Amino acid sequence: MLAPIVNYPLTKASLNNNSTNHTMTTKTLRPISAIAQDISNEWSKAKSGINYAAKPYLVRLRTIESINDTVMFETARSVILYFLSNASTFRGGNAKVLKLELKEHLK
Questions:
Q1: Are 34 and 106 in contact (CB under 8 A)?
Q2: Could you report the per-residue pLDDT of 95-104, keeping only the tens digit for each?
């Protein structure tokens, strides 16, 4: 049998309860330019080479340090999104990890 759902009222005392020690871990993100350099190195080793549609965005990514930067009239966020949408042929090796690293900057 399932236990009934109990709604406990939130009080100031329950919100400030120090009996449980919650620790938050912060993840340090690498600069976007460093990730872009690794992508260039990895992708240029492939037989097909760097995709022509993704290349201009990859070049722009090399000049971006954080998500708050802008390149020309584009935000870093839009450059990352456009790169990821054009980088579907970037596979194998560390491709998945490097793409996930870029996605972490979008959060």
A1: no
A2: 999 999 999 9
